[in-house]
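Form 7-S
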Amino acid sequence: MVSRVRYAAVLHEFLFANRAAIIARTRAKVALRAAPRATEAELESGIPIFLDQLIEALRSPNAASDAIVKSASNHGRDLLKRGFTIAQVVYDYGDVCQAVTELAAETEASITADEFHAFNGCLDDAIAQAVTEYTRRREQSITAQGAERLGDLAHELRNALGAAMLSFHTLKTGSVGLGGSTSALLDRSLRRLSTLIDSTVTQVRLESSSMSTERVSLHQFIEEIEVVAAMEANARGLALSVLPVPAGIEVKVDRELLAGAVTNLIQNALKFTRPGGRVSIKAAAAKGRVCIDVEDECGGLGPGKAEELFRPFEQRGLDRSGLGLGLSISRRSVEAIGGHIRVRDIAGVGCVFTVDLPQI
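Output:
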């Protein structure tokens, strides 16, 4: 971030001095774009918003990063209100970038390669933050409308896939680096897509009552779960601890429903565990019951909050991504296969979710 701060003043001066020319040039590019097709609102008011956001982000050299986050978040929220699509967000940022680059070359502006690198870094952060805020607001609006049906989940699948595809497209152009915010957005979108697919599959099985029970080895089941959980934990910079499961322990369940329920619990634990923390998974059998524990380090729950977590659309913590259906689906899935879920609060540390099933 040091290089971005160092060159913020120069970039701000160039953008501010050439605002009208950049807007006109960008409008011309957007108007000629085949897809996504430009709208009147996008041309008249959208383009100035994109550029003014960057100018504002670079106005204060000592707070450029915070300004980008704040202004891009506001921008993403405004785009949703105005009816813009995610594609318009990403492509319009790209058109602004091209317009600035072309104008700088034509006017022989004294902007160095390092300065353009800093500028592209700002664009990278702005794209990722605006799209993230847009998606979050979109999810919240659907939640507020009481979206519970599979059609709403399918819509979120399209949103996540769209964000992932557009992030990849931006990376493929080479205008931003693989280690930047757009790359991180692609990673989050793919993981979000995976979560939505798992939820949708589980919902379908629950809605259709198309369960198929089979004998499931707990040892093999936990091994399979660990592979995916380890990748997720690594992506989030968290430690994952999985205790060995003794051989010979079996349950008779619908494997897909159990996998969906446990996966949801693990993803929930990884999502809310504090940075640098640990998520632990253990499974054991005793007195004719099989228990799978998922322990996180979320900081603990307040008094009386445990049961609220299982309500549809209930979310905890500062991360509001998703629809808040994961724990509700987990409970329904486990109950459908003859078990139940309970949660135990460890004050100031975290909580332990337990899947309790009959042993065979």
